[in-house]
Amino acid sequence: MFGTQDLAVFIVSGLLLNLAPGPDSLLIMTRSASQGWRAGSAAALGIGSGTFVHIFAAALGLSALLATSATAFMLVKLIGAAYLLYVGATLLLSKMTPAVGAGDVASALPRLSYRKIYLQGFLTNLLNPKVAVFFLAFVPQFIAASAPSKALAFIVLGCIFNFNGMLWCHFLALSTAFASRRVRVNRQLTLWINRVIGAVFVSFGIKLALAHRG
């Protein structure tokens, strides 16, 4: 169908890859825990939008530039690393906000509009050149050599991958928000949890900065 092959294997492999923890998942969990499932879903939609950009860029051959040009890869990599470091530093330097009412557990994170959370998810995904290289390496394995339009087959597979990824991301948003309501954590501990998450984001940024194209 549409020049694809081994579709069942592709779907299972894609789901397993989406389960792997990374900055996208961590951002969704952080926002869901601090502002509820809608905030986590906003981050997830931003991540999905970033993935769509990678899909169409790869289908049009633009992502091949990142895979073959050391300069282009380095530039996007450093921008992406800087953004992850910025997000991490924001979490590390976060302070407790005043409690809203008696018994409330206030988040140590400042509340953001859903638009800003969406953009945060979008940029976290878009500015990671490893995602573009991943699509170029993974998706073509499931395009038949006889496909009438390899670009169309690539887009179809990419959309399937992204749809499955969105299912997982929204489940992550809902489950994290549910867990955060059930498990009442004191504000001081919440602050330190956010700082630990910030340190993880910083580590992701450093890892990306040191990443190679291969």
Mean pLDDT: 79
**What is the 3D shape?**
globular
Number of domains: 1
Strand content: under 5%
Question: Biggest sheet: strands, sense, closure?
Answer: none
Tally of alpha and pi helices: 9
Number of strands: 0
Computed CA radius of gyration, to the nearest angstrom: 19 Å
Helices and strands, in N-to-C order?
Answer: HHHHHHHHH
Backbone structural class: mainly alpha
In angstroms, what separates the terminal alpha carbons?
A: 31 Å
Taking pLDDT < 50 over at least 5 consecutive residues as the criterion, the unreliable ranges are: 98-107
How helical, in percent, are the residues?
over 70%
What tags apply to this protein structure?
mainly alpha, 214 residues, 0% strand, 73% helix
What does it look like?
This protein has 214 residues and is mostly helical. It has one domain (23-209). The protein contains nine helices and no strands. α2 runs parallel beside α8 (150-182). The protein is globular and about 60 Å long. The model is unreliable at 98-107 (pLDDT under 50).
